[in-house]
Amino acid sequence: MSRFAMPLLRWYKKAGRDLPWRKTTVGGVPPDPYAIWVSEILLQQTQVSTVLPYYHRFLSNFPTVQSLAAAEIDDVLKCWQGLGYYARARNLLLAARRIVDRFGGTVPLTLSELLTLPGIGRSSAGAILNIAFSQRHPILDGNVKRILVRVFCITKDPKERQVTEKLWRLSESLLPKTRADHFTQAIMDLGATICTPAAPKCDCCPVSRLCKGYQKGLQNKLPIRPVRKKTPHYDYVCAIIRNGEKVLIKKRQETGLLGGLWEFPGGRVSNLCSDASPSRGSKVGMGFIGKSLNEIIEKEVGQSVALTPLGLEIKHAFTHFKMTIHLFAGSVRKSKTQLPLKWVPIDQLKEHPFSSAHQKIILKLQNVRQSRRDLWCG
DNA sequence: GACACGTGGCG
DNA sequence: TCGCCAAGTGT
Q1: Nearest nucleotide (CA of A117 to C1')
Q2: Topology of A233-375 in CATH?
């Protein structure tokens, strides 16, 4: 066993985290590969504290791969609502169906088979085999990358292909012959609790003695980050269109940004004069861009819409852009619709998966309800 | 190889 | 307010 694995495993025994997916069982026999798989997908690009409530909710809704495979996408997305990266939920459902159809309902236990499943890449496949089946496969997630970059004092951008390949080789080389599953969870715990992105606690680190980055005092500089372009800002409009107690909502196309989620009809305005945005210092309002506005909403709704500005807006930030959504009240003539449009009683909105941005809209409308009775409950 | 893909917390 | 950051994968 390497000089790296030995102290790490000793540390893990006393300081490792107690996480729910580490004590899963099937009929009393641990572990449950399905639960491990679900946890790995939930944890992609997402911290443990964020995942915990989702993990419990997801497994109680879909306790087995069969139950997931039989589910509808709206129910899976509803369970995923607010977590982000919704392609994970779509792919999880697709993969569950494929496991039932092609793998007899059992999570496959080879790397090549796992890699055929949507949403499972090299790192997640390695983690599943490693943790669920005690197979000796390396992983390379954010934690492992950061640790390796520091321990081996790699001063180049880890995103470069050659650097990534080197990190995979290093991850593989450190993996002990036995207890690879403990090692993998140990190194992730180390990254999450000691070798953190900012202010790593090197004083408490079991491998600081052999950390080249620490020896050179570079632990706070690594990994190096290439300068990021600043994210653009876009203005959106959306319409709260009511008919009695019902509201018109629309399901987004199944792929791409927020794919499959429901939202209030609207879209991006390209020719919004900067003066028209109250959020940027003016009280001019949205009136004079009315034409383009109606075009956007009417294209979404498929009929003419009478719009009134509500003087409300919500702001939201994605990884790659920021947006301000300007809210309007709308009314239409025809109440007949077909998917992806749907009239929904207001109290049934919560049955549908919405993005966080549109959840903010719902909250905002509920909050102004007292003073603006006209807007939401009539 | 570069970019798309969410969200909430933090300094 | 803003940029950075977190258990990656798909195109």
Answers
A1: C9
A2: Nucleoside Triphosphate Pyrophosphohydrolase (3.90.79)
Q: Answer for A284: CB within 7 Å of strand C.
A: no
> Rounded mean pLDDT of A240-249?
95
Q: Residue A279: its pLDDT value, please?
A: 45
Return the CATH architecture of domain A2-137+175-193: Orthogonal Bundle (1.10)
Q: State the nucleotide closest to A233 in CA–C1' terms.
A: C2
Strand C contact at CB of residue A26, distance < 7 A: no
10 Å CB burial of residue A267 (0-12, 13-18, 19+) is middle
**Residue A100 pLDDT > 70:** yes
The domain limits of chain A are 2-137+175-193, 233-375
Predicted pLDDT of residue A284: 38
Q: How distant is C1' of C5 from CA of A63, in Å?
A: 32
Number of other CB atoms surrounding residue A209 within 10 Å: 10
pLDDT at A79: 97
Which member of A40, A263, A300, A313 is catalytic? A40
- Whether the model pTM is above 0.90: yes
Residue A73 clears pLDDT 90, i.e. is over it = yes
A165 is catalytic: no
Residue A207 has pLDDT above 50, yes or no: yes
Cβ–Cβ under 8 Å, residues A267 and A296: yes
Short-list A207, A169, A215, CA closest to A186: A207
Nearest by Cα to A238 from A288, A142, A310: A310
- In this complex, the nucleotide whose C1' atom is nearest to the CA atom of residue A120 is C9
> CA of A197 and C1' of B11: distance in angstroms?
13
